[in-house]
Every structure is written in structure tokens, then in C-alpha cells.
């Protein structure tokens, strides 16, 4: 096992510590990812004992940020598992932080405590989407910054390139800018401006891509603002569910068979969204994450933190 | 048959006049929609003769706007079928104009010749999407205005309400604003501003909806800016194709069975996008439209023009 461990928020998520601890055990034992759990020590240790995994270290934090604050940019108090975990990363005692807590709370706490990496204008959420040919495309920004400048959007291309290198193992990722036509003059002012800047940045810029390219696997990185990115991500998730439900309703295939396809687009499978551009790596897992997703998020965190490609199956 | 006819551009579309004329014949005979064809008279009459439908009137236009100008805001010359058709609507000799020509060319020509309705800040494209419960939701703006103001976006809610009344026959349509969270403070500046204004307009405003609501049938009208709307529309189309291709590739169902579901999301089925807010009704059909789509577009055009609900199957 390598250097600094991945710090895992034991108190985040809808299922409480039991599911997170199961994920930590899987990450540790199956994938060889060193982890540290942060949360109410007694509760967490009890869970670890169930799995006979008392070798996994625990750092105590008095409080949990309630999931009811989902969406609200809550200020996590210093004694919360969120703040204690981010603090460990800030001090270099953890390589990365993983939480299934409320996205708003996790992001605001991490930005405040871990801070931005030098030269980064604004952090961005990166989410890996499975594509038709079988690979993945990373969508960035998937919702961190609703009103970025063209400079910020262009820089998301650089952040996404790093992600595709480290997580997908693509040596020279191809970057597309999400717009409403393939020509460079197509788009709104923000995206046209970002397109001009992307030509000058150290990325392999393909030019514009459109909505129907999102799952087509034409590029490794799709760059967009956080408003559009969040809507596209949720539209895609909803749309796959709808298409499969319609297929089931039409009696064409059995719902349990269709679940195989649905699972590829489940937020579960993404392994969480990475907040790129901080001085330490942060992964926000979906609140409903089960153990397998938490374990996957820990792998992605380790890859991003250590610059060690790649764990993608 | 009622008052002014629907004017149909015989020269638009990828398949040339033969498919359009077949659509005109179907609209006329099967759905009782009065139509006038605009295009090179000899070619059009030859096609009409094939269907023994010489009773359909033809207005001559020397030229066709080539489909290669797709996307380019081409200025259609006065002798093109586009300009001649729009001119008929402007003079009140046609109730509506339907074209399967290049969207950019059709929209710019119609705005120039037909002009905006009084009080309308900016026209918007409306596209009807089939929803999971079985009804439809109209997405507006699906791509006419990439950089609207909050006032324009709010007004799209009024235009969409009229569409849902006339085309879907919903007496009091529910309007949702596409954003990145359900609370009114969620979104970018543009959408938050539009949300405040929507409360003051004569629409039944539900508040924000999110990406996963696009096909969920929670509202009758989804309001968005033309940049986001165009990307969402194309993402949804691409995504349904991808989910069904994955289902076929996994051997879960036969491609020909899945085609039933795919057809619901085919641009073919939408019956075209309506440009709302002009002094006359305009429907832009997809370039690849076959006869059935053209006929459906003529029905929608008649409904929107005549304020006569409803033809939706």
C-alpha cells in the first residue's frame, strides 16, 4: 500500500455508517486502497468489528452533517466528520477525501478547508459516463459552478484532461466543448468564448460536440458550465430509466433483464463525482451509495490523488 | 375545411418534393387539413399527379434553399420557396407555414418576413416530448435563442402555455422552469431571474424542475433558454438511442422490437418544432422527415394557427 491513505467520511450517506464501513472494508481488502474512517468512533468501530476489520484506522469526529441539509450550502462545524476529514487532507495526513454527504455541504467545506490548487480559477465536478462503444467520457463541470466565466470553462478542459489520464488511463485525452452546433460560432456567448480560449490551452481540443454526442464516446472529456452539465447529467439518468421503463411496459423485455443496462447509468456505478481543482482530491459519492460504490470511489480517489493510472474495469 | 390553408414548402427536406407531396396528400385526405404547396410548379405538379391529387393548389417559387446551408443563417432570396411561403402567411393567404428546410434559414426568413407578434420579445422553438406516463411535455425554447434575457425566458412560459392548450388540449397547463435544484434560489443568474418573473405572469407556474423531470411528465411545459434546451433535446434523443442499442447489444431484446420505443423519440414523431411568437404560425420539420411527419406537422400547424384543439393522438 502506498503513502497517504484515502480519508472516508463514515457519517455521510443515506444508509449511515454500516454501508460506508462495508465499502471501506472492500476498498482495503479487495482493491488494496489504504483508508482511514472519520466519524463517531464507537459506532464506526462496532461496524468494523462486524467485518473483523479492526485494522482499519478510525479518526473520531463528534458530529455528522445531516443529509436533510442536502443542497443547502451548509457550513459544516469544526467537529463534523466532514470538517475533520477535510482537515486531515489539508495537513497531508490523507491523500484524498471521500464523502457520500450532501453535495452542497461537502463541496463548500472542502473548498474552505482544503482550498484551491494554485492557478485554478474555480473547482469543477467531474462525472464519468459510460458510452455506447463501451468506454467512458468524463463530463466536467457537472454542477459545481452555475455561472462560470469563459476562462473557468476553458480551464475545466485542463482539469478534465488530467482526470481522463489518471482515471481512464488515456494518454492524450480528446476534449469536446458541449454546444448547439459543431461550428465554432455556434453556442451562447459563454461557450463561444470558452471555445476560443481552449485552442490556446495545453489540451487536445476537438472543437464543439452536441447533445447527441454525450454518450457516443466521440471524445474523452466533455467540457461545459455547471448549470448545463448538471441538467444534462440528470436528463441522461432520467432518460435511460424512461427508455427502459417504456421497453418493459411495451412487454419487449423483462424488467430484471433491463436492470443490467440500467445499472450502467445508475449513479451507483459512477463511483461518485470528483471535485477537481483542489489542493487535495475530493470525491462526492451519491447519498444512496452502497458499499460497492464507496469502494469504487476510494479507488478513483487513490488514482486521482496519486497520479496512478488506472483502476477502471 | 376551414379558412386559410397551411402553406407547405415543397422544396425543403432531404428527400426533395416527393416525400413532402406525399405528406401534403396525407394531410389533405386523411386529416382534412387544407394545404397549399410552394415550390417549382412543374416538379410539384408531377408529384401530385402520381397521387392523383391535382386538386391540391400549388404556388410557384423558382428556387430552393439548399440543405447544405443547414445551420447557416442563410438569407433566403425572394424567389425561394421559403420566402414565397412566408410571404403568403404574411399576407394572410396562409394560416401557417411548414418547412423541412434548414432550421437556421427557415427561422431567419420567417422572422424577417412574417415578423414577431405584438409584445413578443423573441420567438422560441417548441418541441413536444413524449413522457413516461404517456402524455407529452413541450420543451421551449429548444434552440431559437441561445442568449436570452430573463424576461425572454419567462415569456417562453407564456408561449409554451398557449402551445400546450392548442396542441395538447390541456386547459390549464402546468409550467416548470428547468434548473439544477427544486428550490427557487437554485440555478444560474439567468434562470433565477426568469423564475422570479414567471410568478408574475399569467401562467400556472410550478417552480423549478430538474433534468430527470424532462421525460417524467410532471409538467406540461418545460421552460429553458435555447442553449440549454437544444442540448437537452439532443441529449435525450441520443440517450434513448444509446439505451436501446445497449439493450440490443446485451441480447435482452431484438432490435426490431426496440424500434417501437425508439420511434416515440424519433424526431420523425415530434411532428416538427414550432417557432412560437410570430404573427403567423411556423413549423420547422426535421430535414429527414417522411410523409407521416409532414402530415403531422401540418395538423399541428393548423391547430396552432386556428386555435383549434386538438389533434394529438
UniProtKB/TrEMBL annotation, chains A, B:
Pathway in which this enzyme or protein is active: Lipid metabolism; phospholipid metabolism
Sections of the chain in a coiled coil: none
**What catalytic activity does the UniProt entry give for this protein?**
a fatty acyl-[ACP] + phosphate = an acyl phosphate + holo-[ACP]
- Has UniProt tagged this entry with the keyword Lipid biosynthesis? yes
Q: What does this protein do?
A: Catalyzes the reversible formation of acyl-phosphate (acyl-PO(4)) from acyl-[acyl-carrier-protein] (acyl-ACP). This enzyme utilizes acyl-ACP as fatty acyl donor, but not acyl-CoA.
**Protein keywords:** Acyltransferase, Cytoplasm, Lipid biosynthesis, Lipid metabolism, Phospholipid biosynthesis, Phospholipid metabolism, Transferase
What EC number(s) is this enzyme filed under? 2.3.1.274
Which InterPro entries does this entry report, sorted A to Z?
Answer: FA_synthesis, Phospholipid_synth_PlsX-like
The source organism is Nonomuraea dietziae
Its organism's taxonomic lineage begins at: Bacteria, Bacillati, Actinomycetota, Actinomycetes, Streptosporangiales
Q: Name one Pfam family in it.
A: FA_synthesis
What domain of life does the UniProt record list for this protein's source?
Bacteria
> What class does this enzyme belong to in the EC scheme?
transferase
Family named by the database record? Belongs to the PlsX family.
Q: Which Gene3D superfamilies match?
A: Isopropylmalate Dehydrogenase
What Gene Ontology cellular-component terms does the record carry? cytoplasm
How does the record describe its quaternary structure? Homodimer. Probably interacts with PlsY.
> Among the record's GO biological process terms, what is one?
phospholipid biosynthetic process
Cellular localisation: Cytoplasm
What GO molecular functions are on record for this protein? phosphate:acyl-[acyl carrier protein] acyltransferase activity
For this entry, the protein name equals: Phosphate acyltransferase
Q: What gene is it encoded by?
A: plsX
Amino acid at each position: 500500500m502506498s503513502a497517504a491513505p484515502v480519508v472516508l467520511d463514515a457519517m455521510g450517506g443515506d444508509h449511515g455508517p454500516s454501508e460506508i464501513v462495508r465499502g471501506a472494508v472492500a476498498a482495503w481488502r479487495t482493491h488494496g486502497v489504504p483508508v482511514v474512517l472519520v466519524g463517531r468512533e464507537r459506532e464506526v468501530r462496532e461496524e468494523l468489528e462486524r467485518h473483523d476489520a479492526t485494522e482499519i484506522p478510525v479518526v473520531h469526529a463528534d458530529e455528522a452533517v445531516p443529509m436533510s441539509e442536502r443542497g443547502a450550502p451548509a457550513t459544516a462545524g469544526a467537529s463534523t466528520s466532514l470538517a475533520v476529514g477535510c482537515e486531515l487532507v489539508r495537513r497531508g495526513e490523507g491523500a484524498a477525501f471521500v464523502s457520500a454527504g450532501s453535495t452542497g455541504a461537502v463541496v463548500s467545506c472542502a473548498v474552505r478547508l482544503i482550498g484551491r490548487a494554485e492557478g485554478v480559477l474555480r473547482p469543477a465536478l467531474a462525472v464519468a459516463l459510460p458510452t455506447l462503444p463501451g468506454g467512458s467520457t468524463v463530463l466536467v463541470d457537472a454542477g459545481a459552478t452555475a455561472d462560470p466565466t469563459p476562462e473557468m470553462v476553458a480551464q475545466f478542459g485542463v482539469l478534465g484532461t488530467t482526470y481522463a489520464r489518471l482515471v481512464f488511463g488515456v494518454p492524450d485525452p480528446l476534449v469536446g466543448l458541449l454546444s448547439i452546433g459543431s461550428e465554432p460560432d455556434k453556442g451562447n456567448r459563454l461557450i463561444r468564448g470558452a471555445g476560443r480560449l481552449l485552442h490556446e490551452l495545453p489540451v487536445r481540443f476537438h472543437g464543439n460536440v452536441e447533445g447527441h454526442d454525450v454518450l457516443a464516446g466521440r471524445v474523452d472529456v466533455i467540457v461545459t458550465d455547471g448549470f448545463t452539465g448538471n441538467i444534462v447529467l440528470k436528463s441522461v439518468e432520467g432518460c435511460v430509466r424512461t427508455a427502459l421503463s417504456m421497453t418493459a411496459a411495451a412487454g419487449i423485455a423483462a424488467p430484471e433483464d433491463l436492470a443490467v443496462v440500467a445499472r450502467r447509468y445508475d449513479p451507483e456505478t459512477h463511483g461518485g463525482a470528483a471535485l477537481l481543482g483542489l489542493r487535495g482530491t475530493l470525491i462526492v459519492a451519491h447519498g444512496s451509495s452502497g458499499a460497492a460504490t464507496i469502494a469504487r470511489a476510494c479507488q478513483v480517489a487513490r488514482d486521482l490523488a496519486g497520479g496512478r493510472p488506472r483502476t477502471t474495469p
